[in-house]
Known about the structure:
Strand content: 25-35%
CATH class: Alpha Beta
Distance between the termini: 65 Å
Helix content: 10-25%
Amino acid sequence: MPTVSTAKMTARQFLHMGEDPPGVTLELVNGEIAVSPSPRPRHSYVDRQLTALIVSHVNANRLGTVLGDTDTIFGEFDVRRPDMIFFSAEREHLIDEDDAIDGPPDLCIEIISPRTRKIDRNDKFKQYAAGRVKFYWIIDPLARTAEAYKLRGKSYRQVASGSGTETVSFEPFSDLKIPLGQLWFSKRRK
């Protein structure tokens, strides 16, 4: 009779696998490998626009470090890759430039798509709170909304939101104005 292994893969084992294959993103969820396709243009556009705004603000004010799509350990059996993470200057020591992030970022940002909606709003929402990530933003390009959450105790509470073409300011960057209308992808007309 064949033996079936039910052992979970650890975060360290997962990280030793190396680079993701082309066209997919791999994460470790409860000891199992989760595969996601590469981002679509709508997602990528929002990511680049928001990254440009935040990186410029963070660098100009020497607030810390912004990283994107980086393996981040959230437990012995969990490695996630938030679309964007931020570490304040006081916590940059947690970043090893040659290894996965092994400590909670100050901020995680997820740009949701129809196929990741449940994961970003439920699974990662709970996991980031349990991992003690102080701020969590959810950006929804299809609905054209942005939501900001702050960790209070062991769970997140929504502290701000915006939609359409509103301009918002979210913690931890309360002095950064984000014109949401600039984030949304629309086909360029000739």
